[in-house]
Amino acid sequence: MSRALVIQTSFLGDMVLTTGLLRELAQRGPVDVVATPTSAEILAHHPAVRHVYRFDKRGTHAGIGGFRAVARLARAHDPTDVAYLAQGSLRSAALAMAAGFQQRVGFDSSAGRFLYTRQVPHRRELHHAERLWRLAASDDQASPPASTVRPSLHPGPEEEDAVQRLLDVNALAGETMVAVAPGSIWGTKRWPYYSALARRLSLLGRVVVIGSDKDRELAAEIVHETFGSAIDATGRLSLLGSAALLRRALVLVTNDSAPLHLASAVDTPTVALFGPTVPAFGFGPLATARRIAEVPMLECRPCDAHGPQRCPLTHWRCMRDLNVADVLEAVDAVQREVQER
Ligand code: SF4
Question: Quick one: which of 36, 178, 246, 288 has the fewest CB in 10 Å?
Answer without folding.
Answer: 288
